[in-house]
Design brief:
150 residues, mainly alpha
Length: 150
């Protein structure tokens, strides 16, 4: 795969995840409502999103396993270790959130809301880290290509 295309695809995937996180946050806001009908609506929306929530973990897993993924292909060992550590923690938090979702009723949504909000904060912070790393790696690869051309 073309290197520029690989970087662009990574940026696009992150942007799509960010958009989904906004929808997820809106569902959590509904679940936190004082109105039972609103909480039920939010729970149904969240349950419908579970497949996409799982896809976030699959995205992280792909970043580690795909040799064409620029993050793991070009990242220095400390950055690669940080990515792995954060991916593992995100996987655990994602699992715990989905587990809690299975036990949540419209009468008791507080724990789910808290776990979801913490997970959203962690996911957004991780994406910021990955985007900063991607930009740095893109710049390094561009400089390398220019140097190699001369």
């Amino acid at each position: 795969m073309d290197l520029n295309r690989a970087f662009q695809e990574a940026h696009t995937e992150h942007a799509e995840i960010q958009e989904f996180l906004n929808m997820w946050e809106k569902a959590l806001q509904l679940i936190a409502s004082d109105d039972c009908d609103t909480r039920c609506t939010g729970l149904r929306q969240l349950q419908a999103m579970e497949g996409k929530i799982v896809e976030i973990w699959e995205h992280c897993h792909k970043e580690e396993d795909d040799p064409e993924e620029p993050l793991f292909r070009f990242a220095a060992d400390p950055d690669r270790e940080r990515l792995k550590d954060e991916h593992f923690q995100l996987f655990r938090d994602n699992y715990e959130f989905r587990r809690e979702m299975g036990f949540t009723t419209s009468s008791f949504t507080g724990d789910l809301v808290l776990k979801g909000q913490r997970l959203l904060v962690a996911l957004r912070a991780h994406i910021v880290f990955e985007e900063e790393l991607l930009c740095r790696l893109e710049h390094e690869q561009a400089e390398f290509a220019v140097a190699a051309a001369h």
